[in-house]
Design a protein that fits this description.
12 strands, alpha/beta, Ubiquitin-like (UB roll), seven-stranded mixed beta sheet, 287 residues, 7 helices, three-stranded mixed beta sheet, Rossmann fold
Length: 287
Amino acid sequence: MTSSLRWVQGRSTAWRTASWHALRSRLMRKLLRVVALWGTMAGGVALAVAWLPDALAELELFRAREYKVVGTRLLEEKQVLAAAAISPFLSVFDDLTPIEQRLAQHPLVRRAHVTTELPATLVVTIEERVPVGFVVSPVLEPVDRDGEVLPLDPVEQGLDLPVLIGAGGAAALSPSQRRILAMEAGRLASDDPTFLATVSEIAIDARGDVTAVVTELVSGDLLLRFRPPLSHRRLHDGLTVLEDAIHRRPDQRAAVLDLRFEDQVVVGYAEQGTGLRAEVSAPRSDQ
Protein backbone atom coordinates (compact mmCIF):
# COMPACT_ATOMS: atom_id res chain seq x y z
CA MET A 1 0.00 0.00 0.00
CA THR A 2 2.79 2.36 0.91
CA SER A 3 4.81 1.60 -2.21
CA SER A 4 1.73 2.13 -4.39
CA LEU A 5 1.13 5.52 -2.80
CA ARG A 6 4.73 6.52 -3.42
CA TRP A 7 4.44 5.44 -7.06
CA VAL A 8 1.32 7.58 -7.52
CA GLN A 9 2.97 10.58 -5.87
CA GLY A 10 6.06 10.17 -8.04
CA ARG A 11 3.95 10.03 -11.23
CA SER A 12 2.04 13.14 -10.08
CA THR A 13 5.26 15.09 -9.42
CA ALA A 14 6.73 14.07 -12.77
CA TRP A 15 3.54 15.12 -14.53
CA ARG A 16 3.54 18.51 -12.85
CA THR A 17 7.22 19.04 -13.77
CA ALA A 18 6.60 18.08 -17.37
CA SER A 19 3.56 20.33 -17.54
CA TRP A 20 5.53 23.26 -16.16
CA HIS A 21 8.34 22.78 -18.67
CA ALA A 22 5.83 22.57 -21.48
CA LEU A 23 4.06 25.73 -20.31
CA ARG A 24 7.33 27.60 -19.96
CA SER A 25 8.37 26.51 -23.43
CA ARG A 26 5.09 27.76 -24.91
CA LEU A 27 5.41 31.07 -23.07
CA MET A 28 8.97 31.57 -24.30
CA ARG A 29 7.91 30.87 -27.91
CA LYS A 30 5.09 33.42 -27.60
CA LEU A 31 7.45 35.96 -26.05
CA LEU A 32 9.95 35.50 -28.86
CA ARG A 33 7.21 35.97 -31.43
CA VAL A 34 6.11 39.20 -29.71
CA VAL A 35 9.69 40.49 -29.58
CA ALA A 36 10.20 39.63 -33.24
CA LEU A 37 6.96 41.40 -34.13
CA TRP A 38 7.92 44.52 -32.21
CA GLY A 39 11.39 44.44 -33.72
CA THR A 40 9.90 44.31 -37.19
CA MET A 41 7.55 47.18 -36.36
CA ALA A 42 10.38 49.27 -34.85
CA GLY A 43 12.52 48.66 -37.90
CA GLY A 44 9.65 49.74 -40.09
CA VAL A 45 9.12 52.90 -38.07
CA ALA A 46 12.84 53.74 -38.15
CA LEU A 47 12.88 53.20 -41.88
CA ALA A 48 9.83 55.42 -42.27
CA VAL A 49 11.37 58.16 -40.11
CA ALA A 50 14.58 58.08 -42.15
CA TRP A 51 12.69 58.07 -45.41
CA LEU A 52 9.98 60.60 -44.58
CA PRO A 53 12.04 63.85 -44.72
CA ASP A 54 13.43 62.94 -48.15
CA ALA A 55 9.94 62.17 -49.36
CA LEU A 56 8.51 65.42 -47.96
CA ALA A 57 11.39 67.42 -49.41
CA GLU A 58 10.13 66.55 -52.88
CA LEU A 59 6.75 68.13 -52.23
CA GLU A 60 6.14 71.63 -53.58
CA LEU A 61 4.30 72.51 -50.35
CA PHE A 62 7.58 72.48 -48.42
CA ARG A 63 9.68 74.56 -50.81
CA ALA A 64 11.14 77.55 -48.91
CA ARG A 65 9.25 80.60 -50.13
CA GLU A 66 9.26 82.98 -47.16
CA TYR A 67 12.22 84.30 -45.18
CA LYS A 68 12.58 86.02 -41.81
CA VAL A 69 15.82 87.75 -40.85
CA VAL A 70 16.28 88.60 -37.17
CA GLY A 71 19.11 90.05 -35.07
CA THR A 72 20.41 92.57 -37.59
CA ARG A 73 21.10 96.26 -37.09
CA LEU A 74 23.89 96.97 -39.55
CA LEU A 75 22.84 94.61 -42.32
CA GLU A 76 19.70 94.93 -44.40
CA GLU A 77 17.54 91.89 -45.08
CA LYS A 78 18.41 91.91 -48.78
CA GLN A 79 22.13 91.82 -47.92
CA VAL A 80 21.62 88.81 -45.64
CA LEU A 81 19.60 86.92 -48.25
CA ALA A 82 22.15 87.72 -50.95
CA ALA A 83 24.94 86.30 -48.77
CA ALA A 84 22.80 83.25 -47.93
CA ALA A 85 22.33 82.44 -51.63
CA ILE A 86 19.26 80.29 -50.97
CA SER A 87 18.29 78.01 -53.84
CA PRO A 88 14.71 78.44 -55.12
CA PHE A 89 14.41 74.65 -54.99
CA LEU A 90 15.43 74.40 -51.32
CA SER A 91 13.05 72.49 -49.04
CA VAL A 92 12.62 73.22 -45.35
CA PHE A 93 13.63 69.58 -44.81
CA ASP A 94 17.00 69.99 -46.57
CA ASP A 95 20.31 70.42 -44.73
CA LEU A 96 20.61 74.12 -43.82
CA THR A 97 24.25 74.01 -42.69
CA PRO A 98 25.64 75.25 -46.04
CA ILE A 99 23.52 78.41 -45.73
CA GLU A 100 24.94 79.08 -42.25
CA GLN A 101 28.47 78.55 -43.57
CA ARG A 102 27.96 81.00 -46.44
CA LEU A 103 26.56 83.62 -44.07
CA ALA A 104 29.48 83.21 -41.67
CA GLN A 105 31.84 84.27 -44.48
CA HIS A 106 30.29 87.75 -44.58
CA PRO A 107 32.60 90.27 -42.84
CA LEU A 108 29.75 91.67 -40.72
CA VAL A 109 28.47 88.28 -39.53
CA ARG A 110 29.96 86.68 -36.43
CA ARG A 111 27.68 83.64 -36.61
CA ALA A 112 24.39 82.62 -38.21
CA HIS A 113 21.72 80.06 -37.39
CA VAL A 114 18.95 78.98 -39.76
CA THR A 115 15.74 77.29 -38.57
CA THR A 116 12.41 76.52 -40.18
CA GLU A 117 8.74 77.25 -39.68
CA LEU A 118 6.43 74.86 -41.50
CA PRO A 119 5.36 74.68 -44.14
CA ALA A 120 7.68 76.97 -46.13
CA THR A 121 9.52 79.59 -44.01
CA LEU A 122 13.22 79.93 -43.19
CA VAL A 123 14.20 81.95 -40.10
CA VAL A 124 17.72 83.38 -40.36
CA THR A 125 19.15 84.56 -37.02
CA ILE A 126 22.26 86.72 -37.30
CA GLU A 127 24.82 87.74 -34.69
CA GLU A 128 26.58 90.72 -36.20
CA ARG A 129 30.13 91.93 -35.73
CA VAL A 130 29.53 95.15 -33.81
CA PRO A 131 32.01 98.04 -34.13
CA VAL A 132 33.59 99.04 -30.79
CA GLY A 133 36.34 101.43 -31.87
CA PHE A 134 38.32 103.03 -34.69
CA VAL A 135 41.84 102.31 -35.91
CA VAL A 136 43.82 104.74 -38.06
CA SER A 137 45.17 103.32 -41.31
CA PRO A 138 45.41 106.20 -42.34
CA VAL A 139 41.67 106.89 -42.33
CA LEU A 140 39.42 105.90 -39.45
CA GLU A 141 38.21 102.32 -39.84
CA PRO A 142 35.82 100.62 -37.41
CA VAL A 143 36.83 97.34 -35.77
CA ASP A 144 34.90 94.76 -33.76
CA ARG A 145 35.92 93.25 -30.41
CA ASP A 146 38.27 90.82 -32.18
CA GLY A 147 40.11 93.70 -33.85
CA GLU A 148 38.68 92.80 -37.27
CA VAL A 149 38.25 95.78 -39.60
CA LEU A 150 34.61 96.15 -40.64
CA PRO A 151 33.45 97.43 -44.06
CA LEU A 152 31.33 100.24 -42.65
CA ASP A 153 31.17 103.95 -43.46
CA PRO A 154 31.50 105.75 -40.10
CA VAL A 155 29.59 108.79 -41.37
CA GLU A 156 26.78 106.79 -42.94
CA GLN A 157 26.40 104.67 -39.80
CA GLY A 158 26.77 107.65 -37.45
CA LEU A 159 29.45 105.87 -35.42
CA ASP A 160 30.79 107.66 -32.34
CA LEU A 161 33.50 105.36 -31.01
CA PRO A 162 36.88 105.71 -29.25
CA VAL A 163 40.03 105.80 -31.37
CA LEU A 164 42.44 102.96 -30.60
CA ILE A 165 46.05 104.15 -30.77
CA GLY A 166 49.55 103.44 -29.54
CA ALA A 167 51.28 105.27 -26.71
CA GLY A 168 52.10 108.92 -27.38
CA GLY A 169 49.43 109.17 -30.05
CA ALA A 170 51.13 106.76 -32.44
CA ALA A 171 48.60 105.52 -34.97
CA ALA A 172 50.36 102.24 -35.72
CA LEU A 173 49.34 99.26 -33.60
CA SER A 174 50.66 95.73 -33.74
CA PRO A 175 48.00 93.05 -34.36
CA SER A 176 48.19 91.95 -30.72
CA GLN A 177 47.87 95.52 -29.43
CA ARG A 178 44.88 96.12 -31.67
CA ARG A 179 43.20 92.97 -30.37
CA ILE A 180 43.84 93.94 -26.74
CA LEU A 181 42.40 97.43 -27.17
CA ALA A 182 39.45 96.18 -29.21
CA MET A 183 38.73 93.55 -26.56
CA GLU A 184 38.76 96.19 -23.80
CA ALA A 185 36.48 98.46 -25.80
CA GLY A 186 34.19 95.51 -26.46
CA ARG A 187 34.10 94.64 -22.76
CA LEU A 188 33.13 98.23 -21.91
CA ALA A 189 30.49 98.19 -24.64
CA SER A 190 29.00 95.06 -23.10
CA ASP A 191 29.35 95.95 -19.40
CA ASP A 192 28.75 99.70 -19.44
CA PRO A 193 27.88 101.19 -22.86
CA THR A 194 27.03 104.53 -21.24
CA PHE A 195 30.56 104.82 -19.88
CA LEU A 196 32.10 103.81 -23.23
CA ALA A 197 30.20 106.68 -24.85
CA THR A 198 32.32 109.07 -22.72
CA VAL A 199 35.64 107.59 -23.92
CA SER A 200 37.28 109.46 -26.82
CA GLU A 201 40.45 107.38 -27.23
CA ILE A 202 42.19 104.33 -25.79
CA ALA A 203 45.97 103.94 -25.99
CA ILE A 204 48.36 101.13 -25.10
CA ASP A 205 52.05 101.44 -24.27
CA ALA A 206 54.96 99.04 -24.69
CA ARG A 207 54.39 97.54 -21.22
CA GLY A 208 50.77 96.73 -22.04
CA ASP A 209 49.29 99.42 -19.78
CA VAL A 210 46.21 101.13 -21.18
CA THR A 211 45.15 104.77 -20.89
CA ALA A 212 41.66 105.88 -21.85
CA VAL A 213 40.72 109.53 -22.28
CA VAL A 214 37.33 110.06 -20.63
CA THR A 215 35.18 113.14 -21.12
CA GLU A 216 32.06 114.40 -19.32
CA LEU A 217 32.88 112.82 -15.92
CA VAL A 218 34.82 115.86 -14.72
CA SER A 219 35.57 119.35 -16.04
CA GLY A 220 38.22 118.61 -18.63
CA ASP A 221 39.53 115.23 -19.69
CA LEU A 222 40.15 112.42 -17.22
CA LEU A 223 42.90 109.88 -17.85
CA LEU A 224 41.82 106.37 -16.88
CA ARG A 225 44.81 104.05 -16.51
CA PHE A 226 44.54 100.29 -16.10
CA ARG A 227 46.05 96.94 -16.96
CA PRO A 228 43.87 94.67 -19.08
CA PRO A 229 41.50 93.07 -18.53
CA LEU A 230 39.45 95.76 -16.80
CA SER A 231 36.53 94.08 -15.03
CA HIS A 232 33.19 95.75 -14.49
CA ARG A 233 33.66 95.53 -10.71
CA ARG A 234 37.11 97.13 -10.84
CA LEU A 235 35.79 99.99 -12.96
CA HIS A 236 32.88 100.45 -10.55
CA ASP A 237 35.30 100.57 -7.62
CA GLY A 238 37.35 103.26 -9.37
CA LEU A 239 34.37 105.41 -10.29
CA THR A 240 33.07 105.19 -6.71
CA VAL A 241 36.41 106.40 -5.33
CA LEU A 242 36.55 109.14 -7.99
CA GLU A 243 33.12 110.41 -6.99
CA ASP A 244 34.16 110.50 -3.34
CA ALA A 245 37.41 112.30 -4.19
CA ILE A 246 35.55 114.97 -6.16
CA HIS A 247 33.26 115.61 -3.18
CA ARG A 248 36.17 115.78 -0.75
CA ARG A 249 38.17 118.23 -2.90
CA PRO A 250 35.67 120.30 -4.87
CA ASP A 251 38.25 123.06 -5.44
CA GLN A 252 40.62 120.73 -7.32
CA ARG A 253 40.11 119.06 -10.66
CA ALA A 254 40.53 115.29 -10.75
CA ALA A 255 42.68 114.53 -13.78
CA VAL A 256 43.82 110.90 -13.35
CA LEU A 257 42.08 107.73 -12.21
CA ASP A 258 44.70 104.99 -11.92
CA LEU A 259 43.51 101.39 -11.53
CA ARG A 260 46.80 99.66 -12.34
CA PHE A 261 47.54 98.76 -8.72
CA GLU A 262 45.65 95.77 -7.45
CA ASP A 263 45.18 96.89 -3.86
CA GLN A 264 44.30 100.54 -4.35
CA VAL A 265 42.74 103.22 -6.51
CA VAL A 266 44.78 106.35 -7.20
CA VAL A 267 43.19 109.69 -8.00
CA GLY A 268 45.44 112.44 -9.39
CA TYR A 269 44.58 116.14 -9.24
CA ALA A 270 45.66 118.87 -11.66
CA GLU A 271 47.56 121.54 -9.76
CA GLN A 272 46.57 125.09 -10.63
CA GLY A 273 49.14 127.22 -12.40
CA THR A 274 51.78 124.51 -12.87
CA GLY A 275 49.88 121.95 -14.86
CA LEU A 276 51.42 119.24 -12.68
CA ARG A 277 49.39 116.42 -11.16
CA ALA A 278 49.73 115.50 -7.53
CA GLU A 279 48.46 111.95 -7.04
CA VAL A 280 46.84 110.76 -3.86
CA SER A 281 45.86 107.23 -2.93
CA ALA A 282 42.43 106.11 -1.83
CA PRO A 283 41.42 102.68 -0.54
CA ARG A 284 39.24 100.46 -2.69
CA SER A 285 35.56 100.56 -1.87
CA ASP A 286 35.37 96.80 -1.27
CA GLN A 287 38.05 96.74 1.40
